[in-house]
Amino acid sequence: MTQLLLTAVGADRAGLVSDLSEIVVNYDGNWLDSRMARLAGAFAGIVLIDIESSEVETLKVDLGGLEAKGLRVTVTDTTPQQDEGQAVLVVHLIGYDHPGIIHKVTATMARLGVTVDDLSTSLREAPMGDGILFEAQVQCRITNATTLDDLRSELESIATEIMVDIDLVDRS
């Protein structure tokens, strides 16, 4: 069996996920994990599937046929990784929206050798109509390159600079 990461992007319409999942199931593929969203009228999704190695090339051809229906799908081969012994953390931040928040946080993480597993962001009205709040939740892993205390210290030091509140929770 081979695991593949499918990335699908197109103008949003009813039936996109059904079209994609129909091709996967036609190859007896197993839909393992996915994230999908409608952003600014476009559909974006990532899907991890498991499929027989002998079926990969013909699956890719059939997925290419979805472009005629407005869905561009790219296929990436994956290699399962062992993440044993790495601390899993959730970082939550909230503050008034302005450019550069995610860059500053992820650049700090990258410099410390912290890897991002899942990142979600959103905007919402601040209480009493006092502007727009930016929220982010980052699930990440600390590799051997740093410690939880170092990450906490670095994030606390940039929180004031970028004017956000940052909470870090150890989920290991």
Automatic annotation (TrEMBL):
Q: Which residues form the ACT domain?
A: 90-171
- Which PANTHER family does the UniProt record give? UPF0237 PROTEIN MJ1558
Family annotation (InterPro entries): ACT-like_dom_sf (IPR045865), ACT_dom (IPR002912), GcvR (IPR016867), UPF0237/GcvR_regulator (IPR050990)
Listed name of the protein: ACT domain protein
Listed PROSITE patterns:
ACT
Where on the tree of life does the source sit, at the highest rank? Bacteria
What Pfam families does the entry give?
ACT_6
State the organism of origin: Cutibacterium modestum HL044PA1
